[in-house]
Amino acid sequence: MSNVKKLAVAGLGATVLAGVTLLAMQDATPQPDVVLIVLDTVRSDYLSLCGEARPTSPNLEAFAQTASWTCGAVAPGSWTLPSHASFFTGMTPLEHGAHEITSGVKDFSGSSSRSRPLKKKGGPPTLAQQLGRRGYHTVALSGNPVVSESMGLTRGFDETTVAEKFGRLAEDDLIDAVTASLTSAPADEPLFLFVNIAEAHQRWEQVPANMGWAEAGDRALLKYAKLKENDPWRQYVEGQLSAEEQAAFDADIDSLYAYNTWRADQTLGRVLAALEESGRCGEDCRVVITSDHGEMLGEHGLLDHGHYVWESNVRVPLLVRGADLPEGPINALHAFHLARDGALPAALTPPVVMSWPHVRRCYMTRGEAFCATSAALWDGNDKLIWTLEAKAVEPRIMRFDLSIDPDEETPLSAEGHPRLSELLELAAAVQADAGEEDEVDQSVTEALRAAGYLE
Ligand SMILES: [Zn+2]
């Protein structure tokens, strides 16, 4: 039930008056349905929409025909929690505070990282809360278990369905949930539907033999318990594979990820078709599609996501129907404004991203992965990165000219760059926000363990 209805039945004079006024305003200007779709773990450069040769994203391409879109958006965070908290508040991870925190990285002790959820009480009003106050019926359907109540991410939704594990609310199950929500949504209230499509997130499905454009990769290489001694995944990030083994591994994960990105796009197509068939989300409907982060597929010797600011981890698509996007990199947290207002704010948040270490995984991979504290900002084709590795005393400051070095292989000097001081300020804030100051929330730890993020 929306706030307007709650107010209207409250029976107190002043409250009823407020409710009636709101209802009258709604009658004057009908509010459009709003749909926000996050393609979890979908990096731009693997999309045929963005130039990939394999046909990985036919449905995004079809949607783009009717939308303003970019392949040059920058995810606000490096993994699900910080990015979704940004999509739901319009704030950066430094502002909303929901991200990985740690106190143990400096002594390299192997103590566990923890995550700080989006504040459940007294935090910034979420997109669902703000639209709920305007009379919207609000629904969240997530194939990613991290988008959960324990993370503070379902605050404000009237209805929430979240997968218990990756793979549980995908394909047919997700489409059934979307259809059920559309059928039961009150016809006299505008709808806000949030959908997280997690098919591109590990665990990946095996490529079927008849795919044609994708070779059958070996999914066993990527089993989620990846921190066992002698596990190929672990040997990969620790640099223990021979050149031949590494090349075979690279080919497999390239194929698996491309195929599972295609699966995410197929589910997207079915969600959009379900919307059309339902009669909701008509002409004036606001549809925003983006991704919360990418995936490292061997670049810089790394796999997975969540602890890096490299392009592979943070460059994502952003598509919107009914609003215009500017040229150049844009912070994908503006999905919040595009969904709420149907427009970008007058003052844009610059594209910046930051990441914190996963201390335990860093320790278990002997300091080869999951270890850095990093911050990055974009300035046209220039990208500036500040990063402090676990074993390093001094941070590295790098500049890349993405127009000639899109793979970030040749760091240039950032000395004298007009935005260097801004990067250093950002880095100082990232370091200052790394420590834990809150009580540990056991439900958060349990939710991450269930999702496979904690061993
Ligand atoms: Zn994610």
Describe this structure in words.
The two termini are 39 Å apart. The protein has 2 domains: 1-30, no CATH class; 32-103 and 115-350 and 440-451, 3-Layer(aba) Sandwich (Alkaline Phosphatase, subunit A). The radius of gyration is 22 Å and the shape is globular. The chain is 32% helix and 17% strand. Mean pLDDT is 87; it is low at 1-21 and 104-110. The chain is of the alpha/beta class and 455 residues long. The strands form 4 sheets. The chain has an 8-stranded mixed beta sheet with strand order 6-5-7-1-8-11-2-12, sandwiched between helices. The protein has 14 helices and 16 strands. α7 (171-184) runs parallel beside α9. It has helices at residues 3-8, 13-28, 58-64, 80-89, 93-96, 127-133, 171-184, 232-237, 243-278, 311-314, 335-341, 359-364, 420-432, 442-451; strands at residues 34-39, 68-74, 100-101, 114-115, 137-142, 159-162, 191-197, 286-290, 296-297, 303-304, 315-321, 330-331, 352-355, 373-379, 382-388, 396-401. β9 and β10 form a beta hairpin. The protein binds zinc ion. Zinc ion binds at residues 40-41, 79-80, 144, 292-293. Residues 40-41, 79-80, 144, 292-293 line the site of zinc ion (ZN).
Topology (elements, then pairings):
Elements: H1 3-8, H2 13-28, E1 34-39, H3 58-64, E2 68-74, H4 80-89, H5 93-96, E3 100-101, E4 114-115, H6 127-133, E5 137-142, E6 159-162, H7 171-184, E7 191-197, H8 232-237, H9 243-278, E8 286-290, E9 296-297, E10 303-304, H10 311-314, E11 315-321, E12 330-331, H11 335-341, E13 352-355, H12 359-364, E14 373-379, E15 382-388, E16 396-401, H13 420-432, H14 442-451
Parallel strand pairs: 1-7, 1-8, 2-12, 5-6, 5-7
Antiparallel strand pairs: 2-11, 3-4, 8-11, 9-10, 13-14, 14-15, 15-16
Helix pairs in contact: 7-9
Bound molecules: zinc ion.
The site of zinc ion has 7 residues, from loops.
